[in-house]
Specification:
The chain is of the alpha+beta class. The chain folds into two domains: about 40 residues; about 40 residues, IHF-like DNA-binding proteins (HU Protein, Chain A, Irregular). Helix content is about 40%, strand content about 30%. It contains three helices and five strands; from the N terminus they run ααβββββα. The strands form two sheets. Strands 1-2-5 form a three-stranded antiparallel sheet. A two-stranded antiparallel ribbon has the order 3-4. A hairpin with a 3-residue loop joins strand 1 and strand 2. Helix 1 crosses helix 2. The model has no long low-confidence stretch (mean pLDDT about 95).
């Protein structure tokens, strides 16, 4: 499912298309803004989005075999909630 299909699903629930698109955009923007602050987003019955610090580590260039240092970074992690896990089973 992509963003436009998600909007269509909200429209199918009885919301006008423009309002549905605005609601989806607002939710996604709010999640992104909260994660950018380093905070987590917990959606009861769905799951939790959080930011994980990845430390600096050693790697290698697959083309040359040369050893390189991969810089520390942050990544977004999603942990599915129990209800979502049960639904997917």
């Amino acid at each position: 499912m992509n963003k436009s299909e998600l909007v269509a699903a909200v429209v199918a629930a009885g919301v006008e298309k423009k309002a549905a698109a605005q609601a989806v955009d607002t939710v996604l923007t709010s999640i992104g803004d909260t994660l950018a602050k380093g905070e987590s987003v917990a959606l009861l019955g769905f799951g939790t989005f959080s930011v994980k610090d990845r430390p600096e580590r050693k790697g290698h260039n697959p083309a040359t075999g040369e050893s390189i240092t991969i810089a520390a970074s942050k990544s977004v992690v999603f942990k599915a909630g129990k209800a979502l896990k049960d639904k997917v089973k």
